[in-house]
Automatic annotation (TrEMBL):
Domain called Cytidylate kinase: residue spans: 3-202
Gene (UniProt): cmk
Keyword Cytoplasm belongs to the record: yes
Family designation: Belongs to the cytidylate kinase family. Type 1 subfamily.
Organism name: Deinococcus radiotolerans
UniProt cross-references to Pfam families, sorted A to Z: Cytidylate_kin
UniProt keywords, alphabetically: ATP-binding, Cytoplasm, Kinase, Nucleotide-binding, Transferase
UniProt catalytic activity: dCMP + ATP = dCDP + ADP; CMP + ATP = CDP + ADP
Any GO MF annotation of the entry: kinase activity
SUPFAM superfamilies the UniProt entry points to: P-loop containing nucleoside triphosphate hydrolases
Sites where the protein binds ATP: G7, V8, A9, A10, S11, G12, K13, S14, S15
UniProt-listed Enzyme Commission number(s): 2.7.4.25
Chain segments carrying region Disordered: 147-184
Protein name: Cytidylate kinase
Organism classification: Bacteria, Thermotogati, Deinococcota, Deinococci, Deinococcales
Length: 203
C-alpha cells in the first residue's frame, strides 16, 4: 500500500505523514528533504543553484533514511538533517526543484523504496506514485502556516508569510492536487485532528 500526502509549504505534510505512518506501522518518506539536501550541498559548494551539471555530481553519496519517526538524509556518512530547514535552504530550494534532472534523481530515489510507505511532497500523487491507493492534499491559509512556522524560525510572522507565499508561487507547477486526492484544510484542525481524519479515511 502507498499513501501520498501532498500539499503547500508548511501545511503539515511531514508531521502528519509521520503520525499516519507510525499509526500504520510503516515508514514515511519526505521528498522535500531530498530537494533540500541538494540545495544545501549546492550552497555549501558555492554552486549556481539553477545549474544541473554542477549539482548532479554532488549527489553520489546522498541517501535518505525513511524512518517513521522522522526522516534523515546522509551524505557520505555525514548527517545533513539538522541543516535542511534553514532560511537559506528555504530561499533556494524552489530553484533547485525546478530542474528536470534533479526531479528525475529524486523520483528515482523514491521509486526504489519498497512499499508499504507514506510519501509526502508536492507531486507524490500526481507524478511519482500516480497509482497510489490513497491520496491526500493538505492546505491552510498562508497566515495560519506562518503562525505555525514562526515557532521554528527566527523571523517574524509577516516575513515568514511572505516567504511561504513566494515559495508557493515558485512551486505552482508541481503542486497541483491529484484529481483523486482528498483535500483537507488543516487550518481549523489540530495536528492530531488531521492525522485522525486521514486514518478515518484509510479505514
Ligand atoms: N494541524 C496543525 N495544527 C497545528 N500545528 C500544526 C498542524 N500541522 C502542522 N503543524 C505544525 O506546523 C509546522 C509545519 O509542519 P510541517 O513541518 O509538518 O509542515 P510541512 O508541510 O512538512 O513543511 P515544509 O513544506 O516546509 O517541509 C510544524 O511546527 C508542525 O508541528
Ligand atoms: N515532491 C516535491 C517535494 C518538494 N518539492 C520542492 C518544493 C519545496 O519548496 C521544496 C521543499 O519541500 P518541503 O520541505 O516544503 O516539502 O522542495 C518539490 O518540488 N516536489
Amino acid at each position: 500500500m502507498i499513501v501520498t500526502i501532498d500539499g503547500v509549504a508548511a501545511s503539515g505534510k511531514s508531521s502528519v505523514s509521520s503520525g499516519v505512518a507510525q499509526a500504520l506501522g510503516v515508514p514515511y518518506v519526505s521528498s522535500g528533504l531530498l530537494y533540500r539536501a541538494v540545495t544545501l550541498l549546492g550552497l555549501n559548494a558555492g554552486a549556481d543553484l539553477a545549474d544541473a551539471a554542477t549539482l548532479l555530481p554532488l549527489l553520489s553519496g546522498v541517501r535518505l533514511e525513511p524512518l517513521a519517526s522522522g526522516n534523515r538524509v546522509w551524505n557520505a556518512g555525514a548527517d545533513l538533517t539538522a541543516d535542511l530547514h534553514s532560511t537559506r535552504v528555504d530561499a533556494g530550494v524552489s530553484t533547485v526543484a525546478a530542474i528536470p534532472q534533479i526531479r528525475q534523481w529524486v523520483d528515482d530515489q523514491l521509486r526504489a523504496l519498497p512499499a508499504p510507505l507514506v510519501a509526502e511532497g508536492r507531486d507524490m500523487g500526481t507524478n511519482v506514485f500516480p497509482y497510489a491507493q490513497h491520496k491526500f492534499y493538505l492546505t491552510a491559509s498562508p497566515r495560519v502556516r506562518a503562525e505555525r512556522r514562526a515557532k521554528e524560525r527566527p523571523e517574524d510572522i509577516p516575513a515568514i508569510e511572505a516567504a511561504l507565499t513566494e515559495r508557493d508561487r515558485q512551486d505552482t507547477t508541481q503542486s497541483a492536487p491529484a484529481p483523486d486526492a482528498r483535500v483537507i484544510d488543516t487550518g481549523p484542525l489540530t495536528l492530531q485532528g488531521v492525522i485522525d481524519t486521514i486514518l478515518e479515511h484509510l479505514r
